[in-house]
Amino acid sequence: MIMSHCYKIPVLLSVVTLFLAPAAHAGTILVDPSVSGSPGAYTYSYEIENQTSVGLLLFSLTVTGDVGAINAPTGWVMSTGIPAPGETLVEWISTDVPYDVPALEALSGFSFASDSGPGTVAFSTFDENFSEFDGQTTGPVASTVPEPDSLALLGTALIGMFTIGRRRATLNRGPRPVHPFVTRY
Amino acid sequence: MLVDGSPIGSSGVVVDSEGNWEALAYLFGAPAPVIRVQDRSTTALSNQITVHPQASFSLGPPVPANLLTAVLPLRHADILVIASTISPQHVLYGPSYTHTALYLGGDGNGTPLISEAIPGSDPSAQTYGQVRSLPLESSTVWTEANRMSGWHASTALTGSTRDAIVAWAKTVAPTPPASLSGLPYWNVSTLLNEVDGADALLVAFGGTITSRFTAFLNVLNSAKNSTTSFICSTLVWRAYYEGSGHALDISSPNNMTAAPGSILGSLPSSFLGLFIQELDPVLVVPQTFVTSPKLSQIF
Description:
The complex is a heterodimer. Chain A is an all-beta fold.
């Protein structure tokens, strides 16, 4: 589904800018995050500043917090995946060159809702040559709950394996005398 | 194959058309088991070898239940395919098998070795590297699997081809310490971005193959053919491809599928078949091997 051409600005009864991290740097790709909303109902928005000479066609975040409705700039589609238990990949992909983040320009409109509060998350971008730029920015993170200590008990067993074999240069010679030796390949 | 006078399994070991045989004896319980080999035809017994297994923390995968005898017929260049709950392959397509490795045969002391590629996030990568050859018992095939199967080429390989497959694997996947500074596993996040991106583009355009979708597939194809980074299945596939002089391509046909809940399996059913068809030439996974007509299951 291609996103609407209109980027909707969220209207909240109580809009509070909770966190505005400095722009994250990844080479010469800058990701400017902004977080609005209130605890339990945040909106995370991003602007990408492309200071390279190649357009950008993909922007993704790997977050541990909740991910709700996602919005994308015109001509971009979005997707989610689960790279590891407890992680969500939020991805925006440009559908064609005219929609890419142009060289030496910026593009905003990447946003999504989340119940989770802000923290540090990883981002990735691909340029039109599929060169990857990675960095860190602000995004939703899961609150951590300490787990009780556990004691790992290790048992030992005396096991092993052993390879053995023999090699003959001749073919199909019927019953063979047995003189095994350890394989050396 | 007799261990302390008792045969391992009932099928014994088969001598191939070139007159060669090899066996992988799983030794359990005795501190210094004695191995002998007996000829079925003549009942002649070999000299005996006393083996001193290393203490191990793992008994190996619980399945197959007959693991003690199942691994006996393994020969160098055979393929091991396992299921592990922690593999990054799960999120991609929800496979029944998630990891694969190449069995290299024994080292000079008879210790069975394998070559495997594992993500850098796996704890054992710190000890053995990511693309590495190591004792089977130290590998993730042994320590992280809950199920294991063995496979060999449906058309028997010659000894020289087996040797070439193993030699190629050892070149790109050295033993520690060289493997610690060796080649890397793919960046899992990058892989997911690429597959997820292609997936989203196909759906966005209602199943139409666009130039950008093709660009994503081209990147996946470059990764598949890379010899500077690997995933488990590209390491095994490429070893067969190079070792057979490009005659045996076990990535084709690719009969992989996708389970519900995975990235690929979450595609609308109307696009799933098309997407898998487009992915087949550019992505090789363990499931490719277990569904390949070019491979037959040993156990």
